[in-house]
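Summarise this fold before class:
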Amino acid sequence: MMAKILEGRPAKMGFRMPAEWEPHEQCWMGWPERPDNWRENAGPAQKTFARAAIAISKFEPVTICASAKQYPNVHKLMEHQTNIRVVEMSMNDSWFRDMGPTFITCKVESGIEKQTIAGIDWQFNAWGGIYDDWSLDSDIAKKMLEIERIPRFLHKMVLEGGSIHVDGEGTCITTEECLLNPNRNPNMTKLEIENELKDFLGVTKVIWIPRGLYGDEDTNGHVDNLCCFIKPGMILLSWTDDEKDPQYERSVEALSVLTQSVDAKGRQLEVVKIHVPGPLYMTEEEADGVLSTGHAVAREPGTRLAASYVNFYVANGGVVAPAFGDDKWDKEAYAVLQKAFPDHEVVMVEGGREIVLGGGNVHCITQQQPVRPS
């Protein structure tokens, strides 16, 4: 049975995008293998993806999608993990946050034909075209929704899941650096983009932060690497105390915007700071391990890594965050996250450096599927 395509504006039908801390049915992940993005044929990255999947599976079911070539290895790797299923799916790369659908839900009484969950299938153009072929990635959202028999809303706007965060109570945060970049939707104005977010995510307030994390050129400054909601009215922000670090200016700029903003409910936003690791830079060995094909973004030695502890995943009762092997800041990040989420168990996944070498982190490689309202 084909998943139904829904017409119209989801917000007007009672749909909204739930906050990430609301209950999940499962978490979706892809499996990395691109040798021109992941070093050593993605071997080190696959170890970190596996750690992240196993950590999340302690809190909620996980579905890992792997190509036909990778499927046997991943299936064998996960055969003793009772809360993980592996499905075969073709893809160009494994960033399910950005390629997957944005799940939206509504209560039965306000739903159309009793639809309580749907997925928004945005246009995907490989972050403004940093790959020259993304034909497989652009079908990921459709395939995920078909597997679950969840109807979808088709959207003409280019948008990646990592470029938005919501509080579940009507507020969305995003960055101008990404959403207003001419490589995404050059024919849309800021107001038009904002109206689409309101009509499709069910939000009434969009807070625009000028820029994302320093060095995050792969995504043009996705918000999920810079800041996120901890709960309604409270935001966690990537920070550095080093005034000479180019990140300092960006963090101060974001802090200024956020502290002068109110959310959809009129609350003044409270900001909690979490220090970035490092700074970390790509080594010559790491850069040499990536195959140069001319079809993907080049990996140069000495490049500042867009490493951030904000790029974590909130599971059912757990927070799964990257550790970068930086003892001082890893420990501090754990403490900040545990205080921010007192009712959750914080798990730091070793090898966060391997994911950031490819251009993202734990939040970027995951996509939550919310529980369908009963």
User: Anything to note?
Assistant: Residues 5-370 form a domain with the L-arginine/glycine Amidinotransferase; Chain A fold (CATH 3.75.10.10). Residues 307 and 356 are 6 Å apart (CA to CA). The mean pLDDT is 96. The two ends are 23 Å apart (CA to CA).
